Amino acid sequence: MRKLILSTALAAIFALPAFAPASATEPSYGGNMVLTYKDDVATLDPAIGYDWQNWSMIKSLFDGLMDYDPGTTTLRPGLAESYEISEDGLTYTFKLRKGVKFHNGRELVADDVVYSINRVVNPTTQSPGQGFFASIEGYDEAAEGKADAVAGISAPDAETVVIKLSRPDATFLHIMALNFSFIVPQEAVEAAGADFGKKPVGTGAFKLAEWSLGQRLVFEKNADYWISGVPYLDSFTVEVGQEPVVALLRAQNGEVDIPGDGIPPAKFVEVMKDEAQASLVVEGGQLHTGYITMNVTQAPFDKVEVRRAVNMAINKDRIIQVINGRAVPATQPLPPSMPGYTEGYEGYKFDQEGAKKLLAEAGYADGFDTEMFVMNTDPNPRIAQAIQQDLKAIGINVSIKSLAQANVIEAGGAGTAPMIWSGGMAWIADFPDPANFYGPILGCGGAVEGGWNWSKYCNPALDEMAAAADSIVDPAKEGERLAKWSEIYMKVMEDAPWAPVFNEQRFTMKSARMGGADELYVDPVSIPVNYDYVFIKE
């Protein structure tokens, strides 16, 4: 065995409050922050929760073996104070921190980690995160209900967790930082049963103190939190049932610190033109790409010339104007803030004449008729209409099918949608690694009935390249691995199963009394806000 990245002595540094991002204002303690959302929270169970609204709340209630530096995509240790990776990259040995306590007062032990991961893999839990653990030895048997536990996970003693993989997986440490890997106490889960998502017990910086359905959730500071010095807030309250326009008005009146649903599209220009209000808006990139899928298994999109023509026909700058400039043009599947992004690649330039030439070469000089499915919430139908106009200019007549999100997803999974505008459903990375943008939405494994690879694009050679890239587990060779991922995405662009359109920027409004680095309010991992490290200045 060789120890990579972290020694125990080094890991101890991460328990210090100095880990907080730099801020112009010295952090202060106390106070209650108020956020609003239109919809109630579905669940706070880390095995079940899988939407942007509950993601950061769950992160404040629970911890995993790994974590990220606040406001960044840089891995750091979490509940594991150190880890070792075997020479073949198949065995991970984690040493737990001593003295970490659950909210119920019991001390964390290695068996809790084993239980928590087994719980997610167990099919009776019906966790949407089950598949993230597929590289662990014995996963298939446990996931299919043929085994009571995943064979590759064990706890040789109270402070040690050993996880054996069936194949090298360079993303595994990121998976250990996912919400689905967060640790829960078995006795609390069994006591609450199906209500654990409403009665969560974790090791996180905050505890759930109140949940009045349809009204509010109140999170109180965990005085026994294992990271010294945080959180800064005494509490934060999430008020639900607030229309975004009303929430913005309340924020303008100083009654709300963060309108969680963001700035309503109809009010965005007005807010950004007002210097006082604009000064309270934080902008940041997110691991997101909005794209048009083309079903490569059906004519005419079975011809690469047609797919490239669609890419060349899209006026991305004009489409971004539809959303008031809240994005940057996308040139490739990966967003700019994602490791592995190919710098300097310009993608398919807007060129209508060139697009018409490609259509003619493919045998469609007179164009063709097709359908594009789109989620029926604003601004997605308007974006679809802009795409429709661009494609009409090169002879492609697109009928728009504006449907509820579930219906669009169903059509995409079934392969019955010739084209889909992904807006409202577009991919936001589960973890900051290029692999997460490939397997589910571009790899052969996702091009199945019900899968999220709506273009049904399957290139076995690229799947092999992806597997080879993720078999590089030595951090010293991470540059080599990312170069391989860059090559994979460049080959995807040659085949053009998508037309990447834009990478959406996140705009968060915060009250003047809120402090902390801007990155915390557009945290790429703790979407939308990193509650553990923000504070009230007054």
TrEMBL record:
SUPFAM superfamilies found in the cross-reference section: Periplasmic binding protein-like II (SSF53850)
Record flagged with keyword Secreted: no
GO molecular function: peptide transmembrane transporter activity
Signal peptide feature range: 1-24
Keyword Signal: yes
Listed Gene3D superfamilies: Dipeptide-binding Protein, Domain 3, Periplasmic binding protein-like II
Domain Solute-binding protein family: 75-446
Localization per Swiss-Prot or TrEMBL: Periplasm
Keywords recorded for this protein, A-Z: Signal, Transport
Gene Ontology CC terms, in alphabetical order: ATP-binding cassette (ABC) transporter complex; outer membrane-bounded periplasmic space
Domain of life: Bacteria
InterPro entries: Peptide/Ni-bd (IPR030678), SBP_5 (IPR039424), SBP_5_CS (IPR023765), SBP_5_dom (IPR000914)
Primary localization class, coarse: periplasm
GO term, biological process aspect, one: peptide transport
UniProt similarity note: Belongs to the bacterial solute-binding protein 5 family.
Protein name, as recorded: Peptide/nickel transport system substrate-binding protein
Species the sequence originates in: Aquamicrobium aerolatum DSM 21857
